[in-house]
């Protein structure tokens, strides 16, 4: 909660103004009730006029204080959130998080939406309501000890008991939603982007059925949220009615004159307490999200062994920030120089995440899932603005070799819209050739290419000394030294092509279905 240590003056001033404004609001109702009781005794008209004038002045004061309080509280909140966002993304720059991930951005945005209301709707109103309750209990001492006890019990119910009960309920609903939402996203992503793979594995109908079931579960989860809000409204309403009935019962003999004033005071007091119950019930859940956002973005789990000879990952698990599932779980993989490794499996099985843990462990050329190009010339994009040395003749030869001769080195391209997916793949492959590294890591290198271009890409890949590839294209699987089949973030089998085909497991079944599909 370090980010709440700033803007102290504005926060304190807004709370003070909020408390004063709330007390004035309660006083307006109390004076109105007192005037009702007083009118029974036919007081002089100037007394009634005086009370009306005070109520009017209080109303004007309340409006002014409310404006200043909102101005200070919202200004503080926006500054807090702005600084919090900046600090988070600064800390993310040095992490190995996939900042392009749509899911990561979506989840992070949802967290920030919850946190943006943290001060305005949770912290500030609760502090204000608690301080107002203290004043109300003290003022009740001027009337009757029974009213003091009533105010104290009411405050504990509304500010402690109800929020604790509903925080447990809210945490359960939110945890279920995160799991359901994550599973639905993964299955939908798997269905859309890996339909061919699912069709080959004869899993397309099963995944489609799972998506429908998960969407129904999400709708039921949302209904639980609506039910929770309805129960809060019901219980707070019953508490208000019960308090009014109790006051009438307690004051019906000696202090009946004060009953109208106390009833209106209770109504106005509940206007302060009722809006606090539901947000206060979200405190612990939102507090946890603040803690996740404030922590530096994590990298991969320990378990990497890097040497001049190769890379070893042992018992590596990985969970994305703000994620509801483990993208990798107890993964072991060893890659020695000169080996060709293929990582296969359905979409969403963890292949790309595993590649992300390997990337950066050695001096290697990388073809990631999301390809970056810049508003610059073809030459600048291929050489990364002169970082890779190459002659124009060599680059023109490579462009022609991958059927990109329609591009001239001085042609200016844009990072969005202009390049097709296949053009990006081939241009990025040329960039990797110019980078001239012995280790290549590639994510779906043959996707979005026709058969002839795929063969050219595969030939270049197999001419590279050490290769680690994630792919759905199983047409060249027999040329890899080691094949790893992934499922639900785990490597369920590894081995050479002949060994795995003889075993008749997941890899053999995938190869058979891929052949049938072709």
TrEMBL record:
Residue stretches making up the ABC transmembrane type-1 domain: 14-289
Positions in coiled-coil regions: none
Organism: Salinicoccus kekensis
Gene3D superfamilies attached to this UniProt entry: ABC transporter type 1, transmembrane domain, P-loop containing nucleotide triphosphate hydrolases
Domain of life: Bacteria
Location in or out of the cell: Cell membrane
PROSITE patterns: ABC_TM1F (PS50929), ABC_TRANSPORTER_2 (PS50893)
GO CC aspect terms: plasma membrane
Record key words, sorted: ATP-binding, Membrane, Nucleotide-binding, Transmembrane, Transmembrane helix
The name this protein goes by in its record: ATP-binding cassette subfamily C protein CydC
Primary location: membrane
GO molecular function: ABC-type transporter activity; ATP binding; ATP hydrolysis activity; ATPase-coupled lipid transmembrane transporter activity
Topology within the bilayer: Multi-pass membrane protein
Transmembrane segment boundaries: 12-37, 43-61, 118-141, 147-169, 230-251, 257-277
Function: May be involved in multidrug export. Transmembrane domains (TMD) form a pore in the cell membrane and the ATP-binding domain (NBD) is responsible for energy generation.
Keyword Membrane: yes
Keyword Amino-acid biosynthesis: no
InterPro entries cross-referenced by the UniProt entry: AAA+_ATPase, ABC1_TM_dom, ABC1_TM_sf, ABC_transporter-like_ATP-bd, P-loop_NTPase, Type_1_exporter
Domain ABC transporter: 311-513
